Amino acid sequence: MKKAIVVLFSLLLGACNSTEKVKEPYFTQAPIKVDQSEVKEYWVFQPQKTKKFSGKRPSWLPEQPGMMTYKLVIDSNGNEVTKELISTTPNNWITQQQLTDMPKISYLPSDQNTNRVPVEVVMKLAVGITPNK
User: Fold this and answer.
1) What are the tens digits of pLDDT across the range 106-125?
2) Which pLDDT value is given to residue 69?
3) Which domain CATH number covers 116?
């Protein structure tokens, strides 16, 4: 009986350790609001290995060309903390759930961002179309 309890307890601990760890947002200060063109002065996109698609379109990727505007918060570790959909063209081109399901991007602090200042930025992203300027 004791042996079964020890085995069960070991399995439970192993299961807890194998679950994905959620990164807690870390802020050295309140995020400052910046324009999309200014983000690179604070955070630089960190290229990551692209996952190969198995021939199936990812569920978060819209089928038609379109454009979206969303609010993004990058914490002091360079992690995307929130992505909040503001608008889409055409209407309902993408949903908040699809935006949330998109792979998260990591950022490195720029040379000027030695204090790792977190930012809030309104981003515009066009997929398959050329946005009007």
Assistant:
1) 999 999 999 999 999 999 99
2) 97
3) 3.30.2420
